[in-house]
Write the structure tokens for this entry.
Amino acid sequence: MQVSIRVNGEQVSRDVEPRQLLVHFIRDTPGLTGTHWGCDTSNCGACVVLMDGKPLKSCTTLAVMCEGHEIRTVESLEVDGRLDPVQMGFHERHALQCGFCTPGMLMTARALLDENPDPTDHEIRTAISGAICRCTGYKNIVSAIRWAAEHEATARQEV
Ligand code: FES
Ligand code: FES
């Protein structure tokens, strides 16, 4: 069946199997492989993208369910060579090691700060509670998101 989804501001249309998952639609059709595919069971959070601004696990969402919606992937964060403050925060606070969880963490963080620009550490931990990192122990990830919240306005101008 034909599905048409707006991905990072561009309309992507394709004939898909009704059972095709959003994560595969994103990775295969526009070739946006920044969205990772991990557990395939809604547990790890590596596949998180934003649908209409809200975090969504793309490994357990059918592509056809996203018809007419706006999807944002990790590739949308950097604009004209400027990193998003959440990307800068992860760099500043050394919040990644292998990087497998990072796309999902970044998109989850972006959604959090869009809704709540000044979250407490508890709110940050709650926001990322659906994402698993096997490397960092989470402390640096929380610190990175806090950094992004504190530098949101200035970071966009500095880079
Ligand atoms: S791949 Fe989607 S939650 Fe793990
Ligand atoms: S940085 Fe390796 S899983 Fe998070």
Summary: The chain has five helices and five strands.
